[in-house]
Write a structure and sequence with these properties.
Chain lengths: 212, 747
């Protein structure tokens, strides 16, 4: 499957006030929100319902947006690994987000879910993402990852996207442990200035449900 | 590669459906209206999917409502077209199985058209009512619920785990289990489970300090106890079949002191989970009418797969000495298994496919039950052919890069087992001496001898052949094998005990005594040795020693019904009838059909002039299957003493049928018939007795009396003279003859 680069035209939206801090515990100060024209783009909401206007904090070099779903078992099984990857790459300037694209994953659903999956609660969460962000990421299932340079999320095409690793090959074909760590490899490549290799196979997971 | 391109195609299909491009627009076939959820899809989901996919079920999401079916439609499409779901591995045409979960071509087509049409709901009111599921027991409240002693914590992440939960079974008497259910406690974690019956609580005894938390391990091997008691039932559980119900007449036995072991496959879910499975047991009072058996084909010794070998074949075959019905089959390999096949070739060359799995997946393993039992004639040869893939191309290969893999019980080892549940066509067979044998012993012998031809050093097979020898009246053969085994395993209490038992059977009871004592010194907790020692002492009238040994055994195993019965017998012999009664009562409370308790308790009651109670006990013994002449003889005695002459005669006739070669029963019957005036019948029975034992002076004398009473003095005179010819000192015959002559001279 090849992807055609989308030419984005972002419709105007009203300017919103910028929330200065993320949820407690994340601790980093936000850098200036990305503005397209003179509009501030709102990616979606955080777990408290506040608008998110930037996915980066001060030292962020790359954004890793991981699209997940509270009711998707494969997505859930990856949460501990995602928390581990976030911990591993944070010192090198990677900010890893859990993005909940499905209409059913409301703030209350995500709250209920994170009380059961502590690994999810340890990561920044983006709920009800703007469909344009989804389109920009080129993702179709959960879990699936998209990497963006921190200063060009909505202005450039996604830097890399695809599966987290090769543990699941299809529904029903599952390795005992992953042999290729696509997301980690892609981040490592990006951080040393190389273009990451596209994953050898599409991600396996639950289809993302379009917002009507 | 092929798999990958298929996946992409599926993804494209899903995307096009989401984009609202209907199937009808790209293909001109618009003749049929697209299927709707309410008419076509809900019935498919309800009969194939929702047993797992309901709230609280084992499936990761529910499919009970239209909204849910719509939410998961793309997955439904992908996994049904690839036949990942519903989980069903056997290829059609290789065995006709009950509960076949393979979706029909029509169902698959309907699902595809429905998704391509944008998942139309149809008219909601026209949908069938959704099935109802309970989070509790499907079969209603069980007769006994066993709960794992401690919960087990499954980590959020990592590889699959295998855990064995141990359940001591607190039954106080033998029970027969007609069904089981398992409530895993956490349906999404417990992938599948097998129940093992640990007759001697062996696993628990091996882990005295930590058994409550369960024991890790994928496969287990445990002993089967002290009698011929082959594994007979598949106690395999998976989420879509929560209740395992045995066919009528085929419950399995559960004795006091047994443990159940739940061997579980657990899958991490992304969060820390705890599981504490419960087992529900449903009992029947009716003992099994049919005894199946599990036969195994394997060639573990040949499982030595080089790294990188993508086509490694392991085969085995077993000739059936008798005709059987195959009831079910359980193919089993680990992660390298690729194609698993089994078939049977009859003596006339006819081939019966038993199962074929082309893409083995341990995660979707199952027991398969034949819709109709398959008749496999005597002389049929069962074949097993498993192909393994130890290359890197096998995605399930636990090793990366591949390494050489041999057989073993860990998930990184490999296995190639085929279990077949069979029911002998004839339950009993006659051996060379005309004695009846449990047919399953013939199957067991064929199986074990086959193992020995392949590997003469197979100690387990040799042990089992020796046990079969002992059970089929060939203790000398058994002794020879046990001695060899004992020589290579001198510290094995089980072998020492079995050798002792064979020596005892062979008449060498002094040597047996030494063997049992040696076994006890090797393992003071080895129940069989202590029991056999006590029973030997009892037989040889060492009642004090027997009582002491039974008591020691009962301190270790207070619920051993046979030991209570033995102690009762010893105490009866030691003239302690009240203490004996207490023990017999305990034995019967534990096992209402304990044969020694029933028989010896009855003897005690007859001796103690309680014929009424003796009669009750003996009636129970007969009902429980004691159809030997001695039991009927005792019953006749009890019937007579309780003034039930007709019942006594019936019992004597049963005794005669059980053992036609014993003249005593004919004589007793003759007396009974005479007592109520049936002299013709009495004479016939007495003659039958004398036909068997012509040298019985008493018998001839009694026949003379009967003839005299029926007015046949010439015959009577003959009989008395016959008695005196055998025994000239026979006072009774002489006196009778005298009386007969006196009577004749008076006329």
């Amino acid at each position: 499957m090849s992807h055609v680069a989308h030419s984005q035209s972002i419709p105007a939206c009203s300017r919103r006030s910028v929330i200065a801090l993320f949820a407690a515990g994340l601790g980093s100060l936000l850098i200036t929100p990305i503005a397209i024209g003179d509009e501030t783009f709102i990616y979606g909401n955080d777990i408290d319902g506040r608008d998110i206007t930037s996915l980066a904090s001060r030292d962020t070099r790359y954004i890793a947006a991981i699209f997940v779903a509270t009711d998707c078992p494969i997505s859930n099984r990856y949460l501990p690994l995602l928390a581990q990857l976030s911990h591993q790459f944070a010192p090198r300037g990677v900010r890893l987000w859990l993005v909940y694209p499905n209409p059913g994953d409301t703030i209350s659903a995500v709250r209920a879910h994170q009380s059961q999956y502590p690994a999810a609660a340890s990561l920044p969460q983006l709920i009800a993402p703007d469909p344009r962000f989804l389109a920009q990421a080129h993702v179709h299932v959960t879990p699936e990852a998209a990497i963006f340079p921190s200063d060009a999320v909505m202005t450039h095409s996604v830097f890399w996207h695809g599966r987290i690793d090769d543990r699941y090959l299809t529904f029903g074909t599952q390795r005992p442990a992953a042999t290729r760590h696509d997301l980690a490899d892609a981040l490592n490549a990006a951080l040393v200035g190389r273009q990451p290799v596209p994953p050898a196979a599409p991600p396996v997971g639950c289809a993302i449900i379009p917002r009507s | 590669m092929r798999r990958r391109s298929q996946f992409v195609l599926n993804t494209v299909t899903i995307l096009s459906s989401f984009a609202g491009i209907s199937h009808a627009q790209t293909h001109p076939d618009t003749t049929a209206a697209p299927p709707t959820w309410s008419h076509q899809i809900a019935p498919i989901l309800y009969s194939n999917c929702t047993t797992c996919h309901h709230p609280g079920g084992a499936g990761p999401f529910s499919l009970l409502t239209y909204e849910e079916a719509r939410r998961w439609s793309s997955q439904i499409l992908t996994v049904t077209q690839s036949r990942f779901m519903p989980p069903w591995l056997p290829e059609p045409g290789y065995g006709d199985f009950a509960d076949n979960r393979r979706l029909s071509a029509e169902d698959l087509a309907n699902i595809k058209r429905w998704v391509n049409a944008g998942m139309p709901e149809g008219i909601r009111a026209e949908a069938p009512a959704p099935p109802k599921y309970t989070s509790e027991w499907q079969l209603g409240p069980p007769d006994l619920v066993l709960t794992a002693p401690e919960s087990f914590t499954v980590p959020a992440d990592g590889q699959d785990l295998f855990r064995n939960f141990i359940y001591p079974v607190n039954v106080t008497r033998t029970r027969y289990v007609r069904a089981i259910e398992i409530l895993p406690g956490n349906a999404r974690v417990v992938h599948h489970a097998n129940i093992l019956i640990d007759r001697t609580a062996e696993l628990r005894r091996q882990h005295p300090s930590n058994w409550r938390a369960g024991i890790p391990g994928m496969e287990l091997e445990i002993g089967s106890g002290d009698r011929f008691d082959p594994d007979s039932h598949f106690l395999f559980w998976k989420p879509d079949t929560p209740a395992v119900v045995e066919p009528s007449g085929m419950p399995w036995r559960l004795d006091p002191g047994n443990d159940l072991i739940l061997n579980t496959h657990l899958k991490p879910t992304g969060r820390v989970e705890t599981v504490q499975p419960r087992i529900g047991l449903y009992f029947t009072d009716t003992p099994p009418a049919r005894a199946p058996m599990l036969l195994q084909l394997e060639h573990d010794a040949a499982l030595n797969i080089p790294a990188g070998d993508s086509h490694f074949v392991v085969e085995d075959e077993l000739r059936l000495p008798i005709a059987v019905y195959a009831l079910g089959i359980y193919p089993h390999a680990h992660y390298l298994g690729k194609q698993l096949e089994a078939w049977s070739i009859a003596p006339d060359g006819k081939r019966t496919p038993l199962v074929l799995i082309k893409d083995w997946d341990i995660d979707r393993q199952s027991v398969y039950t034949y819709r109709k039992p398959l008749l496999l004639p005597a002389g049929s040869v069962l074949h097993m052919r498993y192909v393994y893939d130890n290359s890197a191309a096998n995605l399930r290969n636990p090793a990366n890069p591949p390494v050489r893999v041999r057989n073993g019980n860990r998930s990184t080892d490999e296995m190639g087992h085929l279990w077949l549940q069979v029911l002998p066509v004839h339950v009993v067979e006659r051996n060379g001496n005309g004695a009846e044998t449990d047919s399953r012993m013939l199957l067991e012998r064929a199986w074990m001898e086959h193992r020995l031809t392949r590997d003469p050093n197979d100690a387990l097979a040799a042990y089992n052949v020796a046990s079969l020898d002992a059970m089929s009246g060939n203790p000398a053969g058994a002794i020879a094998i046990y001695r060899k085994l004992a020589a290579s395993a001198p510290k094995d209490a089980r072998i020492a005990t079995s050798l002792g038992a064979a020596e005892e059977q062979n008449g060498d009871w002094q040597s047996a005594l030494d063997r049992y004592r040696a076994a006890i010194s090797l393992d003071a907790n080895y129940t069989d040795a202590r029991y056999d020692l006590a029973t030997l002492e009892l037989r040889h009238e060492q009642y004090d020693a027997a009582a002491a040994d039974y008591r020691t055994l009962l301190q270790q195993h207070p619920d051993d019904a046979a030991a209570h019965a033995g102690l009762g017998t010893a105490l009866a012999q030691l003239q302690q009838p009240d203490a004996a009664r207490t023990e017999f009562d305990r034995a019967l409370a534990l096992d209402a059909a304990q044969p020694d308790a029933l028989a010896n308790y009855a003897s005690l009651e007859l001796a103690e002039s309680n014929p009424q109670h003796a009669q009750e006990l003996l009636t129970k013994a007969v009902a429980a299957g004691a159809h030997d002449a001695a039991t009927f003889q005792q019953l006749a005695l009890a019937d007579q003493q309780t003034q039930h002459p007709a019942e006594a005669e019936a019992a004597l006739r049963s005794a005669i049928a059980a053992d036609p070669s014993d003249p005593t029963n004919h004589s007793l019957l003759a007396q009974s018939l005479a007592a109520r005036g049936d002299l013709v019948g009495a004479i016939a029975e007495q003659q039958a007795a004398l036909h068997i034992n012509q040298k019985d002076a008493d018998g001839w004398s009694n026949l003379g009396v009967l003839h005299a009473q029926s007015g046949q003095p010439a015959e009577a005179r003959n009989d008395f003279e016959h008695a005196l010819a055998i025994d000239p000192q026979h006072a009774q015959a002489r006196a009778n003859l005298q009386r007969l002559n006196n009577g004749a001279s008076k006329q």
